[in-house]
Amino acid sequence: MADYTSFFRKLKGASVLGVNPPVHDFAFFDLWAKPAGLLFLLDFLRRGGNEVSLIDCIFEGRTGELSWGRNSVKNEEIPKPAPLSAIPRRYRRFGLGEEEFAGLLARRPAPDIILVTSMMTYWYEGVFSAIKTLRQVFPAARIILGGVYARLCPEHALRAGADMVQTAPLDLDFSLPAFDLYRGLKYGVLITSFGCPFRCEYCASSALEPLYKARPRDLTMADTITQLASGEVRDLAFYDDALLWDKRSRLYPLLERLKPWRARLHTPNGLHVREIDDEYAAILKKSGFQTIRLSFESSDALIQHKGSDKVSEDEYMAALDSLKRAGFSERSLETYILAGVPGQSVDSVERSIRFVRRAGGLPRIAEFSPVPGTVSFEEAAEAMPALREEPLLSNKTAYSSWLSGAMTPAELQGLKDLAKKGR
Ligand code: SF4
């Protein structure tokens, strides 16, 4: 593993540009995602006496406003990469096009250091493309690649064309993410803890954050106030993996102090259903939560076990009742159901959807994608060894219904239709 922690600690007087690359995929939606790790690092470097700036190719490619502060993002069709050539869907670049990105860069002073972040492993082509453009425009700059893809696929990431690839967790004193580098952002992103105490077999949380750590409360609060005080932010999305863990000491006090701001709150990551009772459902409602996603995953015992046995059917029904009694509408309570996990049958997904619908929840299919470093990835790679060499084969849209043979495209569509029925 390559770790440049001491390089970042010593860096002073440099001009540093952070870049969030475009996304190459079949589909992309703004789910309040922002490159928080990159923003933490930029803040750290700024406090250390460096000059920092940011280009977020997704944000700069926004075309219009969607609900809850989010944006639609421009896209253009691009040729499908060879491993996905058989998938009968259009492949696109989301965010700034190549020329636009190059033009934007050319109008800026040359930085000394460029930090390129990365997210999904199967988005690496957007990362490679960004690095190529950066290299052309700023040949003398040192380019450092980090982020989720670099961490999970360290050897593959060496092909990106960066000068340095950060593949270990950075051991730095992170404080407040530099959200002030955005101009015109209409939502904020909050993190009250890092990692997750559970160990679900399909999730990379523990590979990325081996230890669950609560963030100091005063930092979370300062972060929240800074983002809200920008004047344009009304929506806040929590990006914790385990938001409700230890909720009395962490989340409750934050929600109490947030009340005067009357922010609209969202939880794009699924909430741990077992933690929701009447009292907590009422707190969520009174605190201004607008959209809630619940982690149920499956009514199938095998899949529940792979998911740390974190919720039973009875617990799910009880939580749903509590949330409805607190005043949440069915439409605001989406429930994640996994589809395509190794060993999972189509029938099992269908039963889970029917169960959630009967219970009065709103099922949302989450298509499985094998993530390196997880038990489920190893199972998937045993059946398809090419996964170890080619991250594109993990693409969420393509894996279950086109590549792995877990289900046919028609079966997946049938499950999606069943989940949407009556909405
Ligand atoms: S799936 Fe959710 S509960 Fe399970 S380890 Fe990942 S973040 Fe934690």
Secondary-structure map with pairings?
Layout: H1 5-10, E1 15-20, E2 23-25, H2 36-47, E3 51-56, E4 62-65, E5 71-73, E6 75-77, E7 92-94, H3 98-106, E8 113-116, H4 124-137, E9 142-145, H5 148-152, H6 154-157, E10 164-165, E11 187-190, E12 193-194, H7 205-208, E13 213-214, H8 217-228, E14 235-238, H9 251-258, E15 264-272, H10 278-286, E16 289-297, H11 301-306, H12 313-325, E17 333-339, H13 346-359, E18 362-367, H14 375-383, H15 396-403, H16 409-420
Helix pairs in contact: 3-4, 10-12, 13-16
Bound molecules: iron/sulfur cluster.
Give a written overview of the molecule:
The protein has 423 residues and is an alpha/beta fold. The protein folds into 2 domains: 1-172, Cobalamin-binding domain (Rossmann fold), CATH 3.40.50; 183-423, TIM Barrel. 34% of the residues lie in helices and 19% in strands. It is built from 16 helices and 18 strands. The strands form 5 sheets. A 6-stranded parallel β-sheet has the order 11-14-15-16-17-18. The N and C termini lie far apart (47 Å). Bound molecules: iron/sulfur cluster (SF4). Iron/sulfur cluster binds at residues 196, 198-200, 203, 205, 241-242, 295, 308, 310.
